[in-house]
Amino acid sequence: MHSHRSRSRARRSLVLSLLLVPVLLATTAADARIRTYGWLEWAFLKPDHVRIKAKLDTGAKTSSIHAVDIEKFTRDDREWVRFNVPITPRNGGGKRTRIVPMERPIVRDVLIKAHRGEALERPVVNIDICLGGITFTTPVTLTDRSRFNYPLLLGRVALQGRAVVDVAQKYVNDKRCAGARAQK
After folding, report:
1. Terminal CA-to-CA distance of the chain, rounded, Å?
2. pTM for the complete prediction?
3. Which CATH number fits domain 35-166: 2.40.70.10, 3.10.450.50, 3.30.1380.10, 1.10.150.120?
């Protein structure tokens, strides 16, 4: 009877092991895509490969980018927005301020409650960003971030499945993005 229990336990262990192997392999593959970043990193806006300082904020759900001259328009029966992203020497590393013009289809509009209680409508667009050598598309809210230190805030939606943030570190993932060039 003792040997029967041992064989049953051995069979259950084998079956459980065989069931867990695909799970472990999938977890290992997913973990290989996840990189460690500091709470501040250099990111690149695609397709122009413009370098911009990014704050990685796991306390924020959504991402936002400093945008000015925001203007909605219609193209092909769809709502679009044109805007400029100012890249200053402090937040882009160049010698002079550069204005990066962009046009994107609007994904949605969000209502943001302001400090005084009124709600502000802001457009959300998808932007291609390269961070640590990995390019991905993420939704960002267009807003005036001039009073903030960092023009690009990457929240949980952008970081999920691709980043672990070490809050004790800054600029730890220096992998370059294809086509990236220093700003002049």
Report:
1. 80
2. 0.77
3. 2.40.70.10
